[in-house]
Structure formats: structure tokens, C-alpha cells
Task: structure prediction
Amino acid sequence: MKTYNKLVRDRIPELIANCGRTCVTRIVTDKSVRQDMLRVEIQRAMSLKSKDHFRKAYLEPALSSGLIEMTKPWSPNSPVQKYRLTQQGEALRKYLSFVSNNINYR
Result:
């Protein structure tokens, strides 16, 4: 699964600021991703509103690639279903954190 960190790579916030406009970016903190989270909590942390879009574009790919897992896999439609990072997901989170902290812009 390819990961595109476009805000970092393309310096989008900087480009927007250079045009005299402002933008809001959100970084999901280490603390928030280390706990089990409801779908709606993850969605809010990512500032996404559409439940269907979130499921198709983010949740299902993360589950199928083994980056996250359900806390109640026997009850996938439970209203109290939560998700957590797997070891693979945690390794990817650490790698992306390292990369984003060590990028030098020219």
C-alpha cells in the first residue's frame, strides 16, 4: 500500500500561506493513536465528515492491509466497535513520524 504524505512533500500549507490565505492542518498525536478508538473518533481526528467515504477510502484499506484491527472482530457492526493499530501499523506510524521529523526543505 502506497502512502502519500502530500502536505509534507508538496508543502501545501506553505504554498497557501504564500498566496495570503490560511489553512488548518491537523496532526494525529502519538497519544491518540495508541488507544482504541471508535470509528467516529478516528474520523473526527482526520477531520472527515462522510461516513461512507471514510469507510471506503480509509477504514477498509487499513483493515485489509493489516494496519489496524477491530477490538471486537466477532461483531463488526457493533455500535461500540473500536479499532487499534497492529504491530505493522505501529511500525508504519513510527517510520512516518521519523521521516516527517527529518525532512529538510531546500
User: Anything to note?
Assistant: Residues 6-101 form a domain with the Arc Repressor Mutant, subunit A fold (CATH 1.10.10). The chain has one domain: 6-101.
